[in-house]
Amino acid sequence: MRYLHTMVRVRDLEESIDFYVNKLGLEQIGRHDVEAGRFTIVFLAPAGQKEAPVELTYNWDPEKYDGGRNFGHLAYAVDDIYGKCADLMAAGVTISRPPRDGRMAFVRSPDGISVELIQEGGALEPAEPWKSMPNTGEW
Amino acid sequence: MRYLHTMVRVRDLEESIDFYVNKLGLEQIGRHDVEAGRFTIVFLAPAGQKEAPVELTYNWDPEKYDGGRNFGHLAYAVDDIYGKCADLMAAGVTISRPPRDGRMAFVRSPDGISVELIQEGGALEPAEPWKSMPNTGEW
Questions:
Q1: Which residue, A72, A111, A126, B92, is most buried by CB atoms nearer than 10 A?
Q2: A34 lies in which domain range?
Q3: For position B55, what pLDDT does the model report?
Q4: Is A116 a catalytic residue?
Q5: Chain B contact for A113 (CB, 8 A cutoff)
């Protein structure tokens, strides 16, 4: 067996690419617009890690995408969790669970998919403004 | 950035390990029972691919795990999609979307997580009983 991808559905493809690529930092490694099926799929992966992509599925005809509790999150390690969270906030992304412990944060995609960020190599020293920043909503 | 895992929640850990390990064929590469948080997490990955695990989260106190439309599926390539589907059926797993095209099948975990199976290396010749097997439910 070989892991291929995790697929999530997106309501607005441009908004989602803005989140996953411009804000989160994944790279687009493939895109297929399928006229016959009226859908587009886009594959996004960390730099140098094409074997672990997330697949965005965008159905051209609108659907409602509610979130269920059976799915938890996608998780990525980042080199500097404080810098990454600061960049995400500057880009308008709510840090649902700030990295108070220097180790772990959560944000949500435009469709409510939780994304966990973990400090590569272990926790940083707890630091403000993160240390005293409260949670926002659920993730 | 580095992909770490995809997390799904499970209602019954033993039933889920039976599905993901004994039936689907992933290997257990880690387990942490966290008394303080009253949860257990289990990491499962394809053989030789520890860098792409799924994390099962089992909360000791019962929750209801409904499925939302924003999450799609986990996908794995398999060497023999007909053999894999036959084994899964023999083990009592419903093939929600049989591999009629010799290429793609879907099953569901005990908690309703869709798992896509793709024939490694491209489609096999369409063959019975798969070719004429109808879909069962959604996936």
A1: A72
A2: 6-59
A3: 97
A4: yes
A5: yes
